[in-house]
Write a structure and sequence with these properties.
single chain; 311 residues; mainly alpha; Tetracycline Repressor, domain 2; 72% helix; flat; binds protoporphyrin IX containing FE; binds farnesyl diphosphate
């Protein structure tokens, strides 16, 4: 077969949506929506989450379209649909654009245009600001670009309430501060990939000891933001307990990385770095799950009725 697009199967197009990474993104958006203090129709709540998921996936496809050249160089990403030749770049672009329009339009029609506007901005921020501009130009790429990954709970909250609040800004801030330790702990053991591809990640431009220090700084800054949420209308004792335990665990991990010298961390011994990366995922998932428990304890605000005017 000569035409690459003929080889593509459904699974290849699905892989363009970065489903594994986006699962946590979508979970945080769903929690943002479910913990909001307004009553929502379950069908509309479900469809809002679906459209946010579609938008997140679309931004993943746009990212893969733009990054196909570097994805081909990096071992971790070589098997993706475009570099492996199963999906053509133009098909990925078309899919990313169409799904973006669909997701934003449908979220606007079924929830509200504040949420749709925020979703559009998030897609733009990840695909254009992070992927096309910052990723290849500054080691602060993920600090600033991380804002894209922090918006989803705000989108979810806006889908339910039509607005922004202290709670949704704090959920944003939590993910914003969490992203550097999440990503740099991975970059510490994937450094060779990024330097081969010429991507100016912190580990490449400033070295690993400096990156370890930055991980520790962001983890320290993250702790008060995480704890602050406990004292808002969506927090409570379950969340507070999770926040304390997880903050202590994350700080210990980051401190451990900071103390590690390069001679200890040889190319085949990155267990501590892998450990902190995995812990970052557990951290975010558990905290948002705890928010969900708090909401369930208060009684979830799902009620039939309250359809948009045009239905
Ligand atoms: C600019 C911000 C971010 C960067 C640069 C980043 C980078 C990465 C990279 C390179 C991986 C490696 C594995 C893979 O490709 O599957 C990864 C994994 C992951 N990230 Fe992030 N990430 C960011 C933000 C986020 C956010 C906001 C979330 C969720 C809220 C998230 C959730 C995940 C998850 C769940 C995985 C594991 C995927 C798996 O199981 O393979 N990431 N991240
Ligand atoms: C609702 C909505 C639009 C959500 C988007 C959320 C978002 C921006 C998530 C970012 C997650 C992510 C995989 C970053 C990877 O960086 P990379 O692209 O540099 O990683 P790679 O090397 O694996 O391609």
């Amino acid at each position: 077969m000569t035409n690459q697009s003929y080889d593509a199967e459904f699974g290849d197009f699905f892989a363009l949506l970065k489903p594994r990474v986006m699962s946590l993104v979508v979970f945080t958006a769903a929690v943002g929506l479910l913990v909001a203090p307004v009553s929502m129709n379950p069908v509309l709540a479900f469809s809002a989450v679906l459209f946010i998921a579609l938008g997140a996936g679309a931004s993943g496809a746009l990212n893969m379209w733009w990054d196909a050249d570097i994805d081909q160089i990096m071992k971790r990403t070589q098997g993706r649909p475009i570099p492996s030749g199963r999906v053509t770049p133009s098909n990925a672009l078309i899919m990313g654009l169409w799904l973006s329009v669909l997701a934003v339009g449908m979220l606007g029609l079924t929830s509200n245009w504040v949420a749709a506007g925020l979703l559009a901005f998030t897609i733009f921020f990840y695909a254009v600001v992070y992927s096309m501009w910052l990723k290849r130009s500054t080691p602060q790429n993920i600090v600033i670009g991380g804002a894209a990954g922090a918006f989803p709970p705000m989108v979810g909250w806006a889908a339910a309430t039509g607005g922004v609040s202290v709670e949704s800004v704090l959920m944003f801030s939590l993910i914003f501060m969490w992203t550097p330790p999440h990503f740099w702990s991975l970059a510490l053991f994937m450094n060779h990939d990024y330097s081969a591809a010429g991507v100016p990640m912190m580990t490449v431009t400033h070295g690993k000891p400096y990156t370890r220090k930055q991980i520790l700084i962001y983890t320290i800054l993250l702790a008060p933001v995480t704890l602050a949420l406990a004292f808002t209308s969506i927090g409570g004792p379950v969340y507070f307990a999770a926040a304390v335990i997880l903050s202590v665990g994350f700080l210990r991990g980051a401190w451990g990385l900071f103390q590690r010298s390069e001679d200890v961390a040889t190319s085949d011994d990155y267990r501590a770095e892998r450990g902190v990366f995995k812990f970052s995922l557990l951290y975010l998932f558990t905290l948002f799950f705890a928010l969900l428990i708090e909401a369930a304890l208060r009684g979830l605000n799902l009620t039939w009725g309250a359809w948009p005017v045009w239905i």
